[in-house]
Records
---
Amino acid sequence: MQKHPCPSCGSALKIDRTFDGRAHVTCTGCKVEDLIENAGDPDEIILEMAYRLDKGSGGAPLDGLVREKAEIDEMIGGIRVDGLTRDILYTKQDYIAHYSRICRPPPEEGPEVENMNLDPRISAHLKKIGIDRFYRYQADALNSISGGRSTVISAPTASGKTEAFLVPVIQGIEGGRGVQALIVYPTKSLARDQASKIASFCRSTDITSAVFDGDTIDAERRGMLDSPPDILVTNFDVLHHHMWRNTQLASVLGGIRYLVVDEAHYYSGIFGSNVHHIIKRLRRLAGDMTCVAASATLDGAAEFCSSLFGEEMHLVEGEGGGGETEFVMVFPSMRKQRALMVDLLRRLSRGRHKTMVFNSSHKNAELLAIQASKQGMRIRVHRAGLSPGYRRSVERSFRDGSLGAISCTPTLELGIDVGDVDGVVSSVVPYNRLIQRMGRAARRGQRGYAFLALGNDPISQYYKNHPSDYFEDTEKSYIDPENPLVEEYQVLAMACDKPLDKQEAAGHQGVVEAHQRAGRLELRDGRYTPHRAKAAQMLKEYSIRGIGESLGIYHGKKRVGERALPIALEELHRDAVYLMAGSRYRVVESGYPEGMYARLERLPRDYPYFTKALKMENPLIEEVYESRRVFGTEVAFCRLQIRKIVHGYVNVELGRDEAVGEPVALDYPMEYEFVTKGLAFRAPRPGKEIETAEDPAAAEAGCYHAAEHVLIEGSNMITGGAAQDLGGISLGDTGMIFIYDGAIGGNGASRSLYGRLEAAIGRGAAILSECPCGDDRGCPRCTFSYRCGNNNDYLHKEAALGVLGEMLSGTESGLGEPGL
């Protein structure tokens, strides 16, 4: 920020650059402010402002960059807002897209505990913990589960979902008959966090429970296997591992009567596709089970869980919550999203409000913590990939008040107890996900603060202009049980659990025959049995949370983590800056592809850069599953082979988030091929937008690339936040556009977009037409993508709008022969 004398009063003049290159000028004395187009150096800005003031044209409204005071007053209405919220609402740095005060009364009351025909010991325990009456949805869930119906419980955060499933499960268990119920959590930390509540409930009725996971010590394992508990708290990784290995744990799963899956929304994508098969395998061992799913955020909960569990699920919904929260949706007109998020955190920290900052990725969580620490804030990172001990220390420090803020990823959307939370700052997520994050604040009746920090990206600009649409865009969880690689591994694991009969094998005939040819399955006495050594060789390295190989990450001789391919190529190439636990490291040695490792060295705390990979991707259509007309364009849903090549990188300056210097080429490009699913179409050619362009060749080359970007970025919330799971490729001026699942084999994200492409095209056109930038290439708020592998080169905004306009008008375009 630069300071110069105001030409009107001589006070300090502040000059900030807006995102689209203009100068926002503010006088600290007379408070006059203006927006100068095409501003050059500071002297030119001051001369231009002086001229405009002399002519009486200075101090013009800030042209949509900030709200006028009258607009904010109207937005607030008669609500009395406190000082912290008022300072943010009347900011001169950002655009306030929406304000509301969210009051969440408790859910509707239901019957008294004593009137539900419960075991007296359960009733006594409920009263002991302060529950004399159930909420209506809890009573409905209890009746549904007790009646043997597989049930989905969808209710807000902190509204008593645990009691809703735990009471009927404990009521239905007959003690001393071995493991009768599995309660499954997506992470070990959440399972451990909830285990004490479950154990306390169980002790009151002489039912036993225990946690069995990767952190359970051998002595405890032996004890619970020799004398199995009635309820086992675990995760699907453990179940998968022990079932296919036929361990002693697998032998006690035959009596399961209840399977409870908490935080069911977590099982979207590849993880959920694996879990679908694991539940199918568990049912083969245990027979009929009453299945229960619980979640605070699922939209279309019954449909998703029916797909996840492989059976029809009865839906029980609860509403309400507790507490009162000030909610503000903020668009960073004149700074970067991370600068806005750090500033919101600073304001909350200054008021001693304990705050959770939710970021969209590992890298963003790390970068935000680095910037906030530089400004003196007490903050630590909480994300997957950090050691369990480190994460637990973060949770403990926040809970006891010695830590004021956490920079996290969705790991802390889950119900881990971190104590009182006053404020939540979130990057853009679907509204139902935001509601779960907001539910972290004001649980104990205090005033809560929640800020949605829109970003410097297309969907954020769309919500700035259409804030009401945000509240209609909810997350759609998705899985792809027919992912061919998931099926390949899970069918082999299923045969290891218990040999397949011919009827079971018929449903997976191609996969079974492939395993048979490879010698991993053998047909004996009418059943397919595994060759143990060969099957183990394939299954032992398989992770149900991802597919494919991983690069091990080493600091010195210590293994500190791993990253799955293909994303590992982008983050762990030679000289990449890797972010971990608030520190930066440089990759000094990459063993890919021979050694499958990356070796790190620590960088100084003041190192000013991180890196962004440059890459090329080549697609090949292997099979078309189905096709349809979207307006006039033929769109195919396909099996694709993708060849990814990381050939270089750029340095990005921390804070400004802008590339500096020239791109750096890698000595040895890193290549990886994988098969996935996606959609392909040949977009129609725009006419006048190319013909009237200053550089028609650049417009023709850039129109499809920009259209591909905006279709992915603009569809983000239409598909339930799936854009982060998608990749895209446009092939020069051919018009061929591919949008595919980033996960090997497919995760369902592109299938979700395939079914909603009409809405994505319309929203993409709105983003391009409403963006005020005057650059032919566009800007980060319309055509740029932070995932772009060629540094957002070869883009043309107006011509891309022409492409989408032709699609919306129904111009015919067939897929033809892509010539790939």
---
Amino acid sequence: MSTADPSDSSGEPSGAQGPAPTPPDAPPVAVVGLGGSAGSLDAFERFFVGLPLGSELAFVVVSHLDPHQESLMPEILQRCTVLPVLLIQDDMALKADHIYVTPPGFSVGVQGGRLRLEALERAQGHIIDAFFSSLARDRGEQAVGVILSGMGQDGTAGLQAIKAAGGQVLVQDPQSAEFSSMPEAAIKTGLADVVLPAEDIAPRLYELVTHTALLAPGDLEAEGQTELQKILLLVRSRTGQDFTGYKVSTLVRRIDRRMKSQRIPALGRYLRFLIETPGEVEALAQDLTINVTRFFRDPDAFARLKEHLRSTLMIREPDQVAVRVWVAGCSTGEEAYSVAIVLHELMEELGRPLSVQVFATDIDPQAIATARLGLYPHSIAQIVSAQRLGRYFKPSEEGYQIQGFIRESVVFAQHNTFSDPPFTRLDLLCCRNLLIYLKTELQRHILAVFHYALKPGGLLFLGTSETLGPEREHFSTLDSHWRIYRRGQEAARPLPSGQIVARGESSLLRRTALPFQPDLRPQQRTLSQQAQRVLLTQYAPPAVVINLQGEILFVSGQTGRYLELPSGTPSPNNVLEMVQDNLRYDLAAAINTLKREPRELKVRSHLTGPSGSVLLEITLRPLHGPEQGLLLLIFHEQPASDAPRQDAPSEPYDMVQALRQELHHTRETLQATVEEAFISVEELKSTNEEYQTTIEELKSTNEELMTSKEELQSLNEELITTNSEHQRIISELGQANDDMNNLLESAGIATLFLGNDFKIKRFTPRFANVIRLLPGDIGRPIGDFHLKLRYPHFQRDVAQVLSTLLPFETQVQTDDGHWFLMRITPYRTASNFIDGVVVAFTNLDSVKVLEEQASISARYAQALLERMPDAVMVFNGQKQLLAANPAFYRLLRTTPARSQGHSIDQLGLDQLALKEVQNALNQLLADGQPIRELLLDVDMPGLGRQPFKLEAWPAGAAEDGSGSGSGENVYLLLLENLSTIAARLGTDSGR
């Protein structure tokens, strides 16, 4: 941002080149509708506090108000802005730089640039929607809708109408809103052009409508920052108020507001304008001191404060009747009176006499003057309840006057919270909405001062947008929403460095000339200074300025004849050490007299020098001005010849007179010395008492330290024991870890641990047969690696186990032909939390070899069985047919499908049902006794009766399908046709 040279000596004000001021009846360039509920008064205030002047906009405030009560909105908003605030009347014309407030009991519309009042029923409870819709129809692209804090969704439909007409929509950030329903509903529409806190909406609106960029902290380059510091120094030198600790954004916004009101575009030109216009400095300082307050601001907050004050007062000792309160940044006094009223109500409710003392301070003298009057407008009746209004206020023609007993309990003073000494031993400290304007460093500084000022257990009451930050460890939270805290019981910390300053600092600042103030007439000032210097040198008597301690602050003329440095180590610039001995006591007595009674005194004495004896007269004259306690010492000497001549006979009389005068001075000096000694004794007594108190505190502290030492020793022993236990546990954990590693290694199982995110947590070395992993791969997803498996569903199975928590196992084969049994189980922690899966691969190569061999043997046995000519069958313990060879099925003339599963008693062989056969079979089933060569005659269809031999024996356990051999016991039965065997044998012998 370009700035003008402050040294520019142009006689015209910088604002002369700016645009002409807006005519008083000019139409607005745009109309801004502000919608919010009755609880959004704070948001309205913040909006208008941040509004730059000269925007040429018209503002219409529409809020949900009680239709049966008078509106307090115009009076409250008028305190936040210099723009006129008007209550809307029917057919009122919209004008630029005016604020219009909707009256209770009406809805409002716009037609032809004029405001129309309508019946409240026509809006059907949505007065903001009704106005926004009317504004969109009448103004089109010149319509602006702003939604602030509020309950419900009123205004959302109206914003849609404004956006459809080409207007602009701005919404308060819900996080900064006391009631967030309306802002959140507006944001959900997706129509908001800007979402900002209430105090930042107005500057952004100004930029959007006027297309003029405002001054911003980021725009300040090195030169601009220097000019900003010069402006703050100028304000401090003229008013005594230091704003360097304020946030840069706050300062820039206020300065930019004043620049726009004066039509000055550049910061350098505004600095020049401030130097040449002292009244503008006062106006800027008034803008920088933000006075926004009202009675019982946030009633719920004061209700909660009253509850905590009641509980605090109830636990106090009966003899503790004094209640000290400090309201910092009290503005025009409403908050201080509100606190005093709450305390008087508690005094009546508890029936305890209390001495209430409320210290209310602010840096703005005008605000303090208003607070001292205690007179407020009739409109406060809308905020203060009727009961409190009748009890604590007196009605008058000008408004409501605070009652005398409340006024007497509040002391108002101009006070700088940042640098002046704080009030101490406080039961309650209120500082609401002051810290939000300050830098973080200054906030910490002030909170440290507040901790020092509060007594242990005292309450701290902040604004809803303020927090304790790093100081929270020294306070306990009583109500986090309304920011009510209690100070801890620890001893008060010392005040922060730089807190207490001399009371005369502000006055000294006011008299300090600015180094950059221009010299408008350098030649005239040079001539006058030269002339004054010559006159002072030639004709003015020598003089010095001292303080009441005798320290020389200023020297004029040749004083070397009367003042000289003593031998040894002199006191720095002390006049009592530099005068002659015969003047020292008289001069000290005169200074002590002037301490008690400021008046002009003279001290006379003879002064001996190289030219003879002269009479020296020293005039002591107090300096009247802002700085108190300064004396002017004027040295004037007379030659001895000018003194009254005396005859020789009178010389003894002169000696007696001189002795008497010296005795009188000695007595005065002695009296002053005695008084000083008495004061010193009193001070020493006080100091001794403080030392005694300090010694007692140190003894108590020493005892506490000894107790703490013993506790620390006990704690140290416990720590040593705990450390030993931890060492033992670590050793056991190491041993268990080694055991687990050896167990996994000796088991020969490749194990992989995966997390819930499929990332590798741990693996055993044998897992390299499946995936080649390195220790650095821990933490990487398993999907990044190629599994050497002929199985594509590994990750799917892992996900299934994580979702179902059921183990899963299957046989898989690697690319190089090895077989593994893959088992996936959930990984459960000691607290039964699922933290991934465990994947175990067991080598099955030997099992597969055995299975192959068993399969070959089974095939051989099956082939041999099928080739046997005799009938062979297999049955179980229930005598059910499980299997048979083809000879058996030919013998029975049946098929496997028709016979398997049936009892051997039902197969059609009557001889098998004989009693001796059944007994033999039952004996076989009972104790496994084989049947040997049981001969039978079987009637074979078509062949007649044939001799058979039956044999049966146990064959072991049947396979259960898994190859484990864990099925039921089975038995083998052989039927040999003896005739067939004989025939076969005969055939073989014939051959």
---
Amino acid sequence: MKKNTYSLLATLILSALYGTVHSSAAQADLRQQCLLGVPHFSGTPVSGNPNDLPVYIEANRGEMLHATEATYQGDVDIQQGNRRLQSQYAKITTQDNAGQLTRFAYIDGDLQYRDEQIDLKGSNAKINLNSKDSDLQNADYQFVGRQGRGTAQQAEMRERYRTLHNATFTSCLPNDNAWSIEADEIRQDLQEEVAEMWGARFKVLGVPILYSPYWQLPLGDRRRSGLLMPQFSMSSRDGFSYAQPIYWNIAPNYDATFTPKMMTDRGLQLLTEFRYLTQFGLGTVATEYLHRDRLKTYLGNNKSRHLFFWQHAATFGDWRLNVDYTKVSDKRYFNDFSSEYGNSTDGYATQKFSLGYYQPNYNLVISGRQFQIFDEAEIGPYRALPQIDFNYYKNGLANGWLDFALFSQAVHFDNDSSSMPKAWRFHVQPELNLPLSNDYGSLNLQTKLYATHYRQTSGKGENAEAVQSSVNRVLPQFKADLQTILLNSKSVFEGYTQTLEPHVQYLYRPYKNQSNIGAQNVDSNYLGLGYDSALLQQDYFSLFRDRRYSGLDRIASANQVTVGGTTRFFDQHSEERFNFSLGQIYYLTASRIDESEDNSTSRHSSSWSMQSNWKINSDWNWRGSYQYDTVLNKTALANTVLEFNPSGNNLVQLNYRYASQDYINQNLQSGANSYNQDIKQIGATVAWDIDDNWAIIGRYYHDVALNKPVEQYGGIQYNSCCWSVGIGARRYLTSSNRSDTADQVFYDNSVAINFEIRGLGSNYSSGLRSMLQKGMLPYVKPFSLE
């Protein structure tokens, strides 16, 4: 658990912007560039207590007054281990304190002191050579091996603490006065890596900006309670926003962040996040709350808007507990708020838990699951509570020939609508596998039995549909899966090795009418296929799945042969550079789940599915997939991505996505509204570290069918050794909840500014990665060849 923290001073860094951009050190990243400007320890590390080491003194002239006092003049050089003190005059005394001899060095005039932690200049010092305690005047110090420097009228240096009076501090390199702190007193805690300041004045380019009687500034990467960097933004939806995170380092295994966020057009929102790591597991609990939302397009009767999020994972020996729970106040929440815990493009929020007991050959899991959907369906999906799963695996039966597996489940389905039936489903699914393989390929013969019993209860509502109270369904299945790999060391491309990987599968499962499972005449996008089933999207790999539908309520008949294959090309270093997969299902008889033609394949073959990856070189990657519908005689689905990624975070990505209107409508679930247009979307993302200081990002997504941009985002980040600033502008398509504008689209325009003080920890990143993850459509790396 780690959180970088910075003081309120970061809010003022905007004033430090100036016209000259620091030049980059040749062939050095920002971290190297910054560390070139600080002193480095070049001696040999000392083991043990350095105070026990002997003291060596060199000078042009020395005079021993008596056994306990000596004076040195001219190029005085005093060394003890890694400590070195240089001056023109020094007096060394030895004092006997109850039998303990203590050596002191008194310096008159200018001095220079170095050790593995600090490099300073000063005058008139008193130094305890036994303990390293020192007092000196007019100090000018700089940290060794890391950023941090300043001055002090008087300095008191102890083993753990350094106290500076009438002092200054900055993480900027010498000759860079972008910002600094002046304080009546600064105390640095070397152990806790923190500086406390009293009577502090924050200056930008030497101009006082802010005063505080007390400040605390972290000097490392340790978690520290205090104010985090504030966030500013301007949005046509929110107005001007100011968010001030407050971090509380409760304990090494607990922390919390409280963020009041003021939006001028909407009100005050409070965001909280609590993180924990205990013997009972690790997790995060977060809330977001706005008491009265003044957003004009929000017409909810309850103006309060809120979110609750809880994620937990724990392992207790053989037991595992997982919780993933997100609940929002209304369906428009993720349209109207930017949140780390959900996105409007998801379409739903998940609420689930599971408790499982795991052994090498079996596991038992008790769980519950429901979804909060965000569209306007009158009847939502079923919740599964409770759900009990038992799985058993045993390989090597019959003298090592057979593998056995058993999947069993008992689950209760319930729905918020009184018109919908409720049900218990009991399912047992044993299977036997006979895997055969040699150097040329593999053949897997599998037999499986689906045995399911339903106890159904009709809904109590006025228009509730009657259902059969008891339903039994038993379906056997047989599958033969043949794969082989043919190697051609002399491919069509010189210098490459090619493989041909044919894949043929036969699947048989008899037909049984399943219209008596669940409600049938339901006007909902989420129902009509039983309690938890949905049509699976087709791609090359889905061609070889056992079932057309997810869930167990709709198991279609099958008498089909799937033919496909993949070819791969490997270079001289055995690195895969290109692959291409092609496949299709041939239906020997139509695949059905009931007597309705809408739920039958009613064709002799499936769409052709193609998929390909191409690693053009170390910088360029391409991926594409394509489906051709043999019934519609047209393209059903297509997408392609081309990315240039030469190094680090730098990338340019172009992508295109297409889905035909006819394909969408013929695959919609029962009750779903028809789609009235093709989906055609193009997009581009550019992210680039221009040099060690400047980084830019741009993102543009356009809906060709609507002829409107979906999202536009542009950001620029400037990073120096001691501060950074990022500015991002975003415009994205949203919707209105007003009935009189249902056919219109709206855009939200926003500008956000983020500041950061740097040089206090180890963060020298350009900020590109965090900017790439923002927005409706965050960057995704889609390639399987890397």
---
Amino acid sequence: MKHSNHCRRTVNFNRNWKFIREDISGAEQKRFSDEGWETVCLPHTPRIESLHVDMHFQGICWYRKHFALDEADKGKKIFVEFEAAMHEASVWVNGKLKLNHKGGYLPFTIDITDDVDFGADHVIAVRLDNRNNGSIPPGKPLESLDFSYFGGLYRNVHFHVTEKLHVTDAIYAGEPAGGGIFVKYADVSQSSATVEVQTHVLNEHETAKKAKIVTTLLDKQGRQVETAESSVEAVSAGGAHTFVQTLTITKPQLWHPDTPYLYTLQTKIVEDGHTADEIRTRIGIRTISFSKEGGFVINGDSLVIRGTNRHQQFPYIGNAASDNAHYRDAKKLKEAGFNFVRLGHYPQAPAFLDACDELGLMAVEPVPGWQYCEEGEFQNIVRQNIRDMIRRDRNRPCVIMWEVSLNETYPGRKGATDEFFHECHLIAHEEYPGDQIFTSGDTMGRNKPAYVGYDVPYTLWNDETLSRPLEEVLPDKGGFDREYGDYEFGGHESTSRVPRDAGEQKLLLQAWNYQWSLNRNRGNKWSLGDASWVGIDHNRGCYPRLAECGVLDTFRLPKFVYYFYQSQRRAEIVHEHAESGPMVYIANYWMERTTPTKVVVFSNCDEVELFVNGKSVGARKPDQGPDTEYGERVTGYEVDYWLTDEEQHKWKDACVQGKTDAGDMKVFLHDGGNCRNLAQAPFTFTGVAYAPGELKVIGRIGGKEAAEHVVRTPLEPDTLSLRIDMSGKELSADGADFVFVYAEIKDANGTVVPSACDEVLFDIDGPAVIVGENPVRAEAGIATVLLQARETPGNITLIALTKGVRPTAIKLASVGCGAKF
């Protein structure tokens, strides 16, 4: 590939990989013939999986890439960086073994400078093994794991060319609290902030070099805000030097979830008057703290953390998502009203965290793990994972906590000692010195929680009194509810696990569970915040059905509970790149019923008025009823992990039906209470007489209309319409990007028919393919396909057909995405 002679160049290395899903002897050799292998683009999954897969592909697969270098790169350093590979990777260059990497969630880099010749053909070969391996986090076998890790080269690969005098990569350098560029802040206020920058420079010339660092802070428009120039230092041959600089910023734009302002830090190595290296780092200036008395504070202001959890997977393709797809997920979670996301239970794609930085989603980044802590190699990899995830993401403003406890790995698990987790806490603080590093983790059952030392100890969702942190041993620390709203309502048969086509009553019950739990959480004065389980429905190895407790289903379509959370956002806050401001939503299909009904409205307005066929039912202020018990159990057993399958089914059915017979549970569903601790209570209308037609609600703020929502009684299916979910990013013609296309079965009034479940057949014309099922059965009136772009940009036409209604078509275009290897 021809290029201009810049001092540093990074090229996307995702195209034209050869792939085979079997173990092949000799495939690492340069002259091995891969002519019959499939040609794929990264990110890539080893096998397209079914929608409800539990045991996804496990085994050996190979990737090979042929490439040549340009003469202009002679004398430079050449690296290949893998963002991740699942989960044991062996990498060869021209038949030479370069690395064996264990762990599927963090990056690794190989230096191929001495392995290549110019003008010749070269081959990188990667052998991946994602079979169960107790030495590699998460450790537990797939069949007992409550999520799925899939496989493949499922993230990006990058090709880097630098001068021999260059800024290092923090993970590759392997320096505690060092390597690369490390940015910290001091004395942050609205009037000024001190930006401390440390830059690690490596000299791989055969002679010493004299160099200085010029660091410039650029604003959002690329204008210079401040600059600093170091003294000239001699960097010995083969040696390294860390330059430390300080910039003082007057009236800085501070990063906050409501105003996520990002600066760019431009770093130049200047040697003998010319630029030897240049790198840009996106940063957000902010300061944070956690305390029992003050809660969570950012830039001097208290803020309640209102979050959710997210697994990184998508239907059919597993974890092999494009950068744009990760952004679209982050945007949907932001628009749902969340200001925080827990990356359950592992570091996720850089692209997702890029989106969190841009959109104002705070995050906790967990070390990979789940109910497992074997001594030996496993724990050694955990230690290194903590270092690597901090080195990768320490400059991100969105990351406010580092979870170092291995999810749900309580005492009783082999190796899960206080000593080990205390060491994990200390490793994190060694990697990020100062007062802006906050470790978090489970304290349940720890013999010496104060000794373990987590800065932000977790509460636990099935701890009825929510007494964590333990008052007698952690009296000065607030707690964080890392998961709530799902398992405590019935285990694997939780009434929070509701598909979108479950019907109005079950969707309302799901919303009630999360409302009831959130209100309980917010009533604990020492609570720093919480994260619902979960943001998006996901697969899991331990169960053949999706975990359907998400506010969004696996196709990223919202359930009623999505709008409950949306109502918790502040109406006066308007975000630049996410839907925001006032909202109102009727959680009702307004279908035929024989008795007066309860109508639940979610809104962040201060008053709503409800209309049936144009006639006002009345205006209401937010609910203000008392807190109540969730329900009355008369069976004598608790709702927890240890319910039998029969008991779980019984519990779920009883909750939905509101039974009071012996052995059943009565749930006081949307009783007008359990809301006083919420940012915004729902509006519950009772005794509304049903009349087919239109149900409308108007939301008002200060007496002025601010939002409106209309629901119409669905009639028979009449039309089919197509809708594309772009969520702020065009479809990129890179061979990996994809969008969801929704075929909505509507009546003559344009209302989606929630009872429609017909199959929809899709046909496509243009540079794109449909991945996964086709035809697709509609769920609650909507059939969804995953449409993936080819590598050539162009116009795409998608046609949808189903019985009884007219076919329809929609057009879109995929766009070019820049140079790729």
